[in-house]
Structures are given as structure tokens and as C-alpha cells.
């Protein structure tokens, strides 16, 4: 959801987060349990790009466009 909101492909996210394409694919297809440190790096990458993760009444993401 966050990746799509930014218009990023799997390769884009992997490169920006410094992880492999395989790692992102496995996370997204739930083929493996994310390692906490890797998950943190991916989350920080999204947040640096303007994504806000919401966990309120409607869990999801918001994009804060940079000016």
C-alpha cells in the first residue's frame, strides 16, 4: 500500500532501503517473517519519502507530499 502510494516498484523500494528485491518480495507475499531490523529500515525509508503509517480507526497509510 505504501509502495503503491509512492508509485514505487519493488526494485525502487529495495534500492532505497538497501535491501534485496527478494527480501521485499518475500515480505509482501508473506513467504517469510520480516527481520525486525530490516522492517525498521523499510519503514524509515517510507517515512523519509513522506509516508505516515496510521493505526487509528482506519489502519493504512497517508502520503505527505513534499513541497
UniProtKB/TrEMBL annotation:
Domain HTH cro/C1-type: 2-34
InterPro entries noted in UniProt: Cro/C1-type_HTH, Lambda_DNA-bd_dom_sf
PROSITE patterns reported in the protein's UniProt record: HTH_CROC1 (PS50943)
Ranges annotated as spanning the membrane: none
MF (Gene Ontology): DNA binding
CDD domains reported for this sequence: HTH_XRE
A Pfam family recorded for this sequence: HTH_3
Protein name: HTH cro/C1-type domain-containing protein
Amino acid at each position: 500500500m505504501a509502495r503503491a502510494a509512492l508509485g514505487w516498484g519493488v526494485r525502487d523500494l529495495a534500492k532505497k532501503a538497501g535491501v534485496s528485491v527478494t527480501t521485499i518480495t518475500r515480505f509482501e507475499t508473506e513467504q517469510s517473517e520480516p527481520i525486525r531490523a530490516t522492517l525498521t529500515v523499510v519503514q524509515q525509508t517510507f517515512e523519509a519519502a513522506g509516508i505516515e503509517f496510521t493505526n487509528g480507526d482506519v489502519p493504512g497509510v497517508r502520503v505527505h507530499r513534499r513541497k
